[in-house]
């Protein structure tokens, strides 16, 4: 008695062997039959007893013996097969029709499609019915076939696809148009019968039963079976009959077959089988099955360290990424509620079980997980488990000393703080821990940690410029309380860099501005930082407050006085400090001049600065006296005149230069006039140089009256040449302007005479061409072209004319 067993992938078909005298099946790779189905087949002894009872009961209808069991012709299952064996036809839609042999049979064209030849075919005439060719009564010839040698085999696979036994031992797949969309199955040339049990094709010949896959057309199993007479598929079961017995072959469920393939690591076959079965499974059920098979396939490839294929399967199967993370010990946070899928998707307890102590495998698996998590953390795959993904990624980054750790923590992340703190401390990633504190709103904890690193209490070489980073962090902090708390440490460390906390602080909606008065009071004990902050307020932000300007001037002055009191004096630092003080005294107009001047009265080394302050007070004679007689610094005296008159009119500058010339001339000792004429006298030479360099500023006539009569004209030659040239230029320019004015006047008179001949209409509705206001008085002026304008508009136009301005400017020249 045959005991059928379950189908397991593409492995052994029947197990165990048949009873003695009935042949023995070859044991292949796996089972294909369900042992539970054996109970559906009556045992011979029981069948005989049932037949005897039926005969005694008077049953008179004819019957077939099915493995010793009598069945009526109309019974389900094998009854119809028995009728088919006896030549009866209980089914009305026969697929094939035989005809008498004729002259020659149909042949296939070169493209593999048949040519219809109704008149001279012998053997297979064609597929009948609308499902075969799309039109009832038409036929499609596929290949020559001799019906005298064997019975034709045609099996319906789907609505318009059929399996046919073709010459040359081929099982050919064809649709209703005669085209083949699958590769043929290569079976025996002596095939007696065939059956389709998707996705397999079962074929019976004289000695064997063979099983091929319709998906890849490969032979999956060969079984020894002699005296075979019938093979038929019926309602998902395959009937196999010999001369004495009938067997039911029940295939395993598809999912069981796939699981057996996966268990033997035949991933590609399992996937092909799954995808090929899509049309026979409801859509929703198939999607669930397909995703699970892809996930299992991914873990198989992962265990084989084929990471590219594994990632592809995980992605297509929409794997819950925590299934993969859970393989790595301690990566999931303690607060995670994740439980592995049941039944499990793989056979690994954890990564150590997979690697079997091979650290190189462990390292490769961790690098793969880093790459995979980095790709999926910002996609829909991580939805609902971002905290688990980011925490696992942080732990891997810290353990592997990965450069992306800081990028993870500096951007939006969902790392679980309680798990991450201990892990980062374990691998001495204190700077990264500070970033994590900051992201979780614990800026004070982050700063304490970073300060300990800078002070050497903790070792972390992540950033060599951590001090500058802390300064920038405080500069951008939204909490002003934290700024006041930790700015003192930064200023004590380096005032020049630490002051950036106040000077570079951006102003925005989420950042309150530091009050300058509070900052100045806070910086009182840091003199250098205070100086830099006041320079920022006055020189960069241009704040126009007297107290800031005065405070900055006094800090500059204190610095200069301190350097002057040192012995020996650092001339380089003193020079730079005085330059800053002098520039501030010249450029600012807001500081308290008298107060600063009082601070300098007792210092004879700051005469230049005192002269600048006298200039601010409009005491130019005192300033020039200091510069000329006390400092004997004639270039500075000339520069003073230029600076003091820089924002004034030309007349003011002329008065200052005449004042300086008078100081030079008044300073000449009596009786030195002849010596000056011969080139002696320091003051006289300074006066001559002043005239020769700035001759365009002076009034030449006034200068000639001031100069001593004993001076040689040769000394004043440059000045006189420039004065004469300027006078001639001014006179000629005036003549040109006068000529242009006369010409314009003549033209206006001519136009006036022309316009007088034409009437000029003025009304309240007509507007002035210059101001566009209406006329309210009869008095108007007519412009060239007959355009009436107001009298005052015409006068204003004349005053604004270039000729008028030129005449006004030339009146100052001699």
Automatic annotation (TrEMBL):
Please name the InterPro entries in this protein's record: Clathrin_H-chain/VPS_repeat, CNH_dom, Vam6/VPS39/TRAP1, VPS39/TGF_beta_rcpt-assoc_1, VPS39/TGFA1_Znf
Membrane-traversing stretches: none
Q: Where is this region: Disordered?
A: 1-26, 77-141
GO biological processes: autophagy; endosomal vesicle fusion; intracellular protein transport
In this chain the CHCR repeats are located at: 505-669
- Residue runs in coiled coils: none
Domain CNH: where? 154-232
Superkingdom of source: Eukaryota
Q: Which PROSITE patterns match?
A: CHCR (PS50236)
Q: Tell me the ranges covered by the Vacuolar sorting protein 39/Transforming growth factor beta receptor-associated zinc finger domain, including all copies.
A: 758-796
Report the GO terms under cellular component: cytoplasm; membrane
Which segments show compositional bias classed as Basic and acidic residues? 90-103
Give residue ranges for domain Vacuolar sorting protein 39/Transforming growth factor beta receptor-associated: 389-491
Protein name per the record: Transforming growth factor, beta receptor associated protein 1
Per the UniProt record, the source organism is Poecilia reticulata (Guppy)
The taxonomy runs: Eukaryota, Metazoa, Chordata, Craniata, Vertebrata
């Amino acid at each position: 008695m045959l005991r059928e067993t379950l189908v397991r992938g593409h492995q052994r078909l029947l197990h165990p062997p048949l009873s003695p005298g009935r042949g023995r099946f070859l044991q292949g790779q796996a089972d294909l039959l369900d042992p539970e189905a054996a109970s559906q087949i009556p045992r011979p002894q029981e069948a005989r007893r049932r037949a005897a009872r039926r005969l005694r009961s008077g049953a008179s209808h004819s019957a077939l013996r099915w493995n010793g069991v009598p069945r009526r012709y109309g019974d389900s299952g094998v009854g119809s097969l028995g009728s088919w064996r006896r030549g009866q036809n209980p089914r009305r839609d026969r697929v094939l029709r035989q005809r008498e042999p004729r002259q020659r049979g149909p042949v296939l064209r070169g493209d593999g499609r048949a040519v219809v030849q109704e008149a001279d075919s012998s053997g297979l005439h064609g597929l009948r019915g609308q499902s075969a060719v799309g039109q009832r009564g038409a036929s499609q010839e596929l290949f020559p076939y001799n019906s005298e040698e064997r019975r034709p085999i045609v099996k319906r696979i789907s609505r318009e696809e059929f399996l046919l036994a073709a010459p040359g031992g081929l099982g050919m797949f064809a649709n209703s148009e005669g085209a083949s969309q699958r590769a043929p199955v290569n079976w025996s040339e002596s095939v007696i019968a065939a059956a389709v049990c998707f996705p397999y094709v079962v074929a019976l010949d004289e000695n064997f039963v063979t099983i091929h896959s319709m998906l890849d057309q490969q032979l999956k199993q060969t079984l020894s079976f002699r005296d075979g007479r019938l093979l038929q598929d019926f309602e998902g079961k395959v009937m196999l009959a010999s001369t004495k017995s009938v067997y039911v072959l029940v295939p395993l469920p598809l999912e069981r077959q796939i699981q057996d393939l996966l268990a033997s690591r035949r991933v590609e076959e399992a996937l092909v089988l799954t995808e090929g079965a899509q049309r026979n499974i409801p859509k929703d059920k198939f999607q669930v099955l397909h995703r699970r098979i892809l996930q299992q396939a991914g873990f198989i490839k992962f265990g084989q360290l084929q990471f590219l294929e594994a990632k592809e399967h995980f992605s297509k199967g929409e794997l819950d990424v925590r299934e993969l993370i859970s393989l790595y010990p301690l990566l999931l946070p303690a607060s995670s509620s994740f439980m592995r899928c049941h039944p499990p998707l793989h056979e690994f307890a954890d990564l150590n079980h997979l690697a079997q102590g091979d650290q190189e495998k462990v390292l490769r698996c961790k690098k793969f997980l880093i790459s995979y998590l980095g790709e999926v953390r910002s996609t829909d795959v991580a939805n609902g488990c971002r905290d688990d993904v980011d925490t696992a990624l942080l732990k891997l980054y810290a353990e592997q000393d990965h450069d992306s750790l800081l990028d993870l923590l500096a951007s939006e992340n969902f790392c679980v703080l309680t798990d991450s703190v201990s892990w980062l401390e374990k691998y001495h990633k204190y700077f990264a821990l500070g970033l994590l504190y900051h992201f979780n709103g614990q800026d004070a904890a982050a700063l304490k940690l970073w300060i300990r690193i800078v002070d050497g209490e903790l070792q972390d070489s992540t950033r060599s410029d951590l001090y500058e980073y802390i300064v920038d962090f405080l500069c951008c902090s939204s909490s002003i309380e934290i700024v006041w708390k930790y700015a003192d440490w930064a200023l004590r460390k380096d005032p020049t860099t630490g002051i950036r906390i106040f000077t570079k602080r951006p102003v925005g909606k989420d950042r309150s501005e530091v009050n300058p008065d509070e900052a100045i009071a806070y910086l009182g004990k840091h003199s250098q930082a205070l100086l830099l902050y006041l320079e920022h307020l006055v020189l960069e932000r241009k704040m126009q407050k007297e107290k800031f300007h005065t405070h900055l001037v006094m800090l500059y002055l204190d610095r200069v006085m301190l350097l002057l009191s040192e012995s020996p004096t650092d001339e380089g630092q003193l020079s730079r400090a005085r330059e800053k003080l002098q520039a501030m005294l010249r450029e600012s107009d807001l500081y308290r001049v008298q107060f600063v001047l009082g601070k300098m009265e007792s210092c004879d080394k700051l005469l230049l600065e005192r002269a600048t302050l006298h200039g601010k007070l409009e005491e130019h004679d005192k300033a020039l006296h200091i510069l000329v007689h006390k400092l004997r610094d004639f270039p500075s005296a000339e520069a003073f005149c230029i600076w003091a008159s820089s924002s004034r009119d030309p007349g003011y500058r002329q008065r200052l230069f005449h004042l300086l010339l008078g100081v030079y001339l008044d300073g000449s000792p009596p009786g030195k006039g002849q010596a000056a004429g011969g080139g002696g006298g320091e003051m006289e030479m300074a006066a001559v140089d002043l005239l020769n360099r700035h001759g365009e500023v002076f009034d030449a006539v006034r200068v000639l009256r001031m100069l001593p009569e004993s001076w040689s004209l040769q000394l004043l030659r440059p000045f006189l040449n420039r004065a004469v040239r300027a006078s001639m230029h001014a006179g000629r320019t005036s003549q040109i302007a006068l000529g242009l004015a006369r010409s314009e006047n003549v033209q206006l008179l001519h136009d006036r005479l022309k316009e007088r001949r034409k009437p000029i209409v003025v009304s309240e509705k007509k507007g002035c061409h210059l101001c566009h206001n209406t006329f309210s008085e009869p008095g108007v002026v007519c412009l060239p072209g007959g355009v009436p304008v107001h009298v005052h508009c015409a006068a204003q136009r004349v005053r604004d004319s270039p000729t008028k301005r030129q005449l006004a400017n030339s009146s100052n020249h001699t």
